[in-house]
Specification:
Number of strands: 5
Number of helices: 2
Helix content: 10-25%
Distance between the termini: 35 Å
Strand order of the largest sheet: 2-1-3
Strand content: 25-35%
Radius of gyration: 12 Å
Shape: globular
Number of domains: 1
Length: about 80
Amino acid sequence: MGCFDIIKDNLFCPFCGKKQKEYSFQSKDLGDAMTSWTIGEIKNILPIQSRFEIHSQCDYCKEWISLNLDLMRMKKLK
């Protein structure tokens, strides 16, 4: 058990495609300080080589969502 950081953004479920509520996703890869982050804030503070995982359970289809985000790819998509 431990503390999670929360992702503020409304993200979509990769299984059913429905938009999730704000603050639905969590991560243990960002410092475990119970801080709220947007994806944009994370992109600005972590080194470009960083990868981090976020997790949630879809409010609609109930699938467990585990996303691995790669900052190198995200910064190239600007």
